C-alpha cells in the first residue's frame, strides 16, 4: 500500500523554500486532507473558497497559489480545486494555466468571483487546448470581457474533454456568445454551459437566433443557462422551433428575461411534444395567469417528462397558481415546483397546502410551506429553488433533491 505524502508538511517546506509566509487557511485545509482515509481511493477536492462564513479565512492570493500548486504536482489524489471568492488576478491565472498544462489528474476547477481579466482568461483557455483531464470549469463573475470569452470560444473548437463550463456574469458580449454558439455546433463533449448576463448592445436577439441554430445541430448539450439575455417572445419562439429537433437538452434556464404569456404559449406547445426537457426555469419573467394556464394545460394533459418548474416572481395570481396545482395532481412526473414571489390568495394557499398534506408535493421540492392562523391557511417562503447552490456550496455534500442544485445530476455527467 502506497504511503500518501504529507501535504501540510510539504506546504510548510515549500513556503520556506520560496520565502512565502504560510497561509493559515490553506494549512488548515491541507491538514484536514491529510486526515482523510479515503484520499487514495476516491480522490478529494480541496475546498479553499474565500466565502466561508463558518470560519474566518485569509483569502488566497497569487503568491499563495504559487506555493500551493508547487506541491500539488505530485498529488494525483487531488482531483478538485475550489478557489472561489479569493484574490486571484491575471498573475494567479498564469500560475494556474501552467499547472493545467502539466497536470493530468484535476477534474474540477472553481475560480468564480476572483479578479481574473482578459489576459488571465487567454492563458487558462490556452492551457485547455492541451489539457485532457479537466471536466468542469467555473469562471463565473471574473470580468474577462468579450475578448476573454472569445478565447474560450476558440478553446471549445479544440478541447474534447471539458463537459461543464460556467461563464455567467463574466461581461462577455454579443460577439462571444455568437462565437460560442458556433463552436458548439461542432463540439461533442460539452454537456452544460452557463452564459448568464452577457452585455448585449442591441435588442434584436441575434444571440438567441444563433443559440437556436446551435440547438438544431448539437446533440450533446443537456444544460443551458440563458438568464438575463433580454430575451423576448420572438427569441422564445426561435428556441422552441429549434427544440422540436433537439433530443438532448434537459435543463433550460430562461430566468430574468422579458418573456410574457405570448412567449409561454410557444413553450406550452413545445412541452406537449418534447420528450427530453426535465427542468424549466422561468423565474423573474412576466408570464402572468395566462402563461401559467398554458403551462398547466400542457403539463396536465400531454407532457410526462418535466420534473421541475420555476415560475417565481411572474405576476401570477390565484387563477394561474391553482391551475398549476391541478396540473401537479394530474402529472405524477412533475415533482418540483417553485412559486414564491407571485400574488397568493386563499385558493392558492389551500391548493398547495393540500398538495403538501396529501404527500403529492414534498416540502424539499418546493419553496413554500403552509401555516395556519385563526383557521385560515397561508404560505411562507422556504429557501429552495433551482439556483440554490449556484453561488455557494454547503460544507457537507450537496443536499438532495438534485433539482434544487445549480448543476443537476440528471444525466451521467462526470463529477469531481
From TrEMBL:
Keywords: Repeat. It comes from the Eukaryota. InterPro entries: Leu-rich_rpt, LRR-containing_regulator, LRR_dom_sf. Coiled coil: none annotated. SUPFAM superfamilies: RNI-like. The keyword Repeat applies. This is LRC34 protein. It comes from Dasyornis broadbenti.
